[in-house]
Amino acid sequence: MNLTNSEQRFDTIVIGGGQAGLSIGYYLDRQGRDFVILDANDRIGASWRRRWDSLRLFTPARYSSLPGMPFPVPPDTFLTKDQVADYLEAYAARFQLPIWLNAVVDTLSREDDRYIVSLGVHRLEAKHVVVATGAFQHPKVPAFGDLLDPAIAQFHSNDYRRPNQLRDEDVLVVGAGNSGAEIALELAKTRRTRLAGRDTGHLPKRYPPIIRKLYWWLIHTVLTTDNRSGRRFKTLTGKKGAPLVGISQQDFERAGVERVPRMVGVQDGKPLLQDGRVLEVANVVWCTGFAADFRWIDLPVFGSDGYPVHTRGVVEGEPGLYFLGLPFQYSLTSSLIGGVGRDASYIAEQIAARSSVPAQSAEPAATALG
């Protein structure tokens, strides 16, 4: 078939240009494959730049690098969001990865032995597709949020940038994970702040070197889906939530953050807590996570929970289809910058084992899709 500008064929298509997509791109490039990375944003690293201003990673730079390029800062640096974004942009440029920006995928389907990726008027075909969008695409807010008094300002952590976005009055932060805890501590400097949610435990942010290495070895190498202990750990973290890193109960007390039970509903337009209290607040910040949205994938690869059924990212029911960057895809580090590279290497090996390497076409890096 003769292909037009809007109809192209590749060996491999990677959907998502974040840390997962760039990691698999590194390995595909080393194999000499004809591939393209599709990113919906107008700039590499854009999703990091949109996060709140004071955000820092809770893993140091030594554990926050992608394959082939160490982070160019002292290894014990705790990175800002913009440092991460700049690094991703520099990474793509260094390895000249073929990236199409503004490439919003409408559907992924299959025809005979090839996958079809549709983007508006563009139709792309490939023998292999790696879905590297992760599982945190859409902000999740409880349905009862719509019942709050319209006078209460509401923000999801995805939209929160800095305290001056909120009204200068009391705030309830809903969700006591790492994001909620960090935002609550920041807001408590300027207004009365309550943090709703259960205590998931606490871990220090800084360890002695030997303990730090041991901890990373444990969560990266020992506790994996290959063994019973790792699978049990995956189940526990999914149910209980991850412990707070670098934030203790004393930190909340010193900052004046009041811990309160979970928010369970709305009464008279106001937040209702699990213990029956109704709060008078002017702001609610939802730190209630994100929902996976794979509705654009027209393939029977999902379980009842909406997540793909896979083994280490390999979808056995659809040969040539892979997922990358999912929570605990193989270990707790699978969705971290410093851990996704191992999963990317594994998937690249599966692609190589399934096919010979075709000649690579010349594609400019970071091309905007018209």
Structure description:
This protein is an alpha/beta fold. It folds into two domains: 7-137 and 292-368, 3-Layer(bba) Sandwich (FAD/NAD(P)-binding domain), CATH 3.50.50; 141-201 and 243-286, 3-Layer(bba) Sandwich (FAD/NAD(P)-binding domain). The chain is built from eight helices and 21 strands. It has helices at residues 19-30, 46-49, 81-94, 178-187, 209-222, 228-240, 249-255, 340-354; strands spanning 7-15, 35-38, 56-60, 78-80, 99-101, 107-111, 114-119, 122-131, 138-139, 153-156, 171-174, 193-196, 202-203, 244-245, 258-260, 263-267, 270-273, 283-286, 290-291, 321-323, 367-368. The strands form six sheets. Strands 1, 2, 5, 6, 7, 8, 20 and 21 form an eight-stranded mixed beta sheet that branches. It has a five-stranded parallel beta sheet with strand order 10-18-11-12-15, with helices on one face. Helix 1 packs across helix 8 (340-354). The protein is globular, with a radius of gyration of 22 Å. GO terms for molecular function: flavin adenine dinucleotide binding; monooxygenase activity. Keywords: Oxidoreductase. InterPro entries: Auxin_biosynth/cation_transpt, FAD/NAD-bd_sf. It holds the Pfam family Pyr_redox_3. This is Portal protein.
